[in-house]
Amino acid sequence: MIATFVLPGFVTLLLRERTYVIKGEDTPFERLLTALYYSALVFAVLSVGGLLLGFDARDVARAYDGDANYEIYVAFAVAGLFIIPLAIAEIGRRWQGSRVLRPWFLEHSGVDPGHSVPAGWEHFFGRSEGAFEGRGLLLRITLDDGRVIAGFFGKDSLAGYTAHTRDLFIEERWILDDDDWFKEPAEDSRGVWISEGSIRSVEAYAPPQTEAGADDGPGND
User: Fold this and answer.
1) Are 220 and 210 in contact (CB under 8 A)?
2) Least crowded by CB within 10 Å, which of 36, 72, 73, 126?
3) Cα dihedral sign for 28, 31, 33, 36?
4) Which residue has the higher pLDDT, 78 or 132?
């Protein structure tokens, strides 16, 4: 019975972490509480849906005692384990990515939007506007041994999004000049991976414009 109640919450939690929420360093107890919260939300939606469909207390009692039709159990299982958790995760994703309604609500309610971001890494690489949708970025990464690596971070690049995997894959490495400044793309570069533990700092700059003035990335200069 406990597993039946908790499972919808865990499904919702996993869907959120697979779509838009950055997984934090919650303890197992904290994750259990979060799952219980979402389970309560799922069952609340199920209850409202049941009332709208004409179910009453006697129908609920029959279902609890195992006397309901097979189709009823299948319908509630599909709704409680798939449809409603997916809907909750999708609504949350759209709310998190809203550029009008959510900022307006946070501003007028006095809530700091930074509370939803675990660290500056996620704040920077989690942004979807500007550099990440268009021209990309030129990055200078200083390593823990003092070396500097540079490259182009575009749509085929990747930044690890959890506290345990904040590594970087940069799709195109760049050659630096004597002042450790961007010079040109490395010939035949297919990217470079940088482990989390070796990164001391990351600097980001706008890439150069193309000859035609379009924002197609630095490789078309």
Assistant:
1) yes
2) 73
3) negative
4) 78
CB 38 within 8 A of CB 85: yes
Domain assignment present for 112: no
Is the Cα dihedral 125, 127, 133, 138 positive or negative? negative
**Which range is least confidently modeled, 8-17, 34-43, 64-73, 94-103?**
64-73
- Cβ atoms of residues 138 and 131 within 8 Å: no
**CATH code, 156:** 2.30.30
DSSP secondary structure letter of residue 26: -
User: Average pLDDT in the 208-215 region?
Assistant: 52
Question: C-alpha distances in angstroms, 186 versus 51, 149, 189?
Answer: 64, 11, 5
* Interval 60-115: pLDDT, tens: 666 666 676 777 778 888 998 999 999 999 998 888 777 788 778 877 787 766 55
- Given this model, what pLDDT does residue 5 score? 83
For 118-139, letters b (16+ CB in 10 Å) and e give: beebbeebeeeeebbeebbbbb
Q: How many domains does the chain have?
A: 2
Last residue of a domain, one of 58, 76, 103: 103
Q: In angstroms, rounded to a whole number, what is the distance separating the alpha carbons of residues 215 and 3?
A: 52
